[in-house]
Amino acid sequence: MNSAKDLSCFKAYDVRGRVPDKIDESVARALGRAFADHFSAREVVVGRDARLSGPGLSAALAQGLTEAGARVTDIGLCGTEEIYWAAARQGFDGGIMVTGSHNPADENGFKLVRGGAAPVSADSGLKDLKSAVAELLRGTAAGTGAEPQGAARGSFRKEYAQWLLEYCRTANPPRNPLKVLADAGNGCAGLVLSELGPSLPCELVLRQAEPDGRFPNGVPNPLLPEKREGTARAVREQKADLGIAFDGDFDRCFFYDSDGNFIEGYYCVGILAQELLRRCPGAKIIHDPRVYWNTREVVLAAGGVPVMGKTGHAFIKEKMRAENALYGGEMSAHHYFRDFAYCDSGMLPWLLTVRLLSETGQTLAELAAERMAAWPCSGEINRRVTDAAALMQAIRDRYAARAVHEDHLDGLNLEFPEWRFNLRMSNTEPILRLNVESRANRALLEDKTAELLETLDASA
Fold it and tell me: What's this model's pTM, rounded to 2 decimal places?
């Protein structure tokens, strides 16, 4: 019996934690049973990333689903967006991805969607699932992790790859195809990249493409300095026109220009919004609250309607659906598309960017440079603090009287005539996350960032 299982692995919009301390096969099995019961799901697709704990957790999850009367289709190693695509287009009542995303190899988790790839967050069922799992664990022995009877193996990769190619097809084949360096980081992106490769309108060079749950080349987090430098160096060595890198379940895509310079996800949001609005003028574009001045200016200039949404993939998807938005983008490199069931994809952003560069003859550096100068930003800076809530209030008391705008949609957002900042607490740790941006004034940006960090560091 497992009467005292710690279920802090249930977060605001997914389930994640260290294996087996926070997540084990008993949790996976109970989650499968709870999911099938709570959402009356009778056809469920499941998949997993490359982590070594994935097969056991996936099998236990499928066992719980089948115990609750669901039929399970297991697509094995895949990316989260392959689960989204299957849930949206193959008639499933729900989908569950077993993934630790960009976290270390000893962590894992679950991303859940209902039929049509509708998100499951704390506000749309995840709290109820946590309660149901707790109840099941109080009265149910741990799962065995054995292969569940009735689970069927399947794959929709060829169909998904074909859809990607059709959606991002250029009007005319480029005369001089771009050379793209793609770093899969030993996650699962290499599986789809290899499927796409022969039909792409570009030359694709793969790096660390073999899925390996040991992550021998480092944690699959492209934001880590050592990971950035490795990809940047490969871009320069290959003389690539564009570099892209993925996290473990490839629902995020990170960009590098031809010199290996990392392009912040913030500016990529503006580039993709502008490209999509060319084909659908007047549409709504969702952006997150951390940095947004550049996005709003680009969207308005392109004839679109910018709408702010709360940070987090489940919250952005829910906002996308509520607004019937064409596209949504977060500075964290999550990109969401109405034509992709309002879900985030790591494949669509780079394929659309290749189409844009091929059609215009511009480089990524040229597209980003003007925007980076007009709206410089700090990038997200994390600081571990002793009392996050008290420090948030202290900073609000210090700055709010001079602000021209204040809101609390997601943390503390204060705007001033020439600069603004967003400060928000982590959902899981005593960490504050700071983002600062200015109006074409890098010196002011650096001064205000340093000023805020001095206060944060004093309480570390």
Answer: 0.94
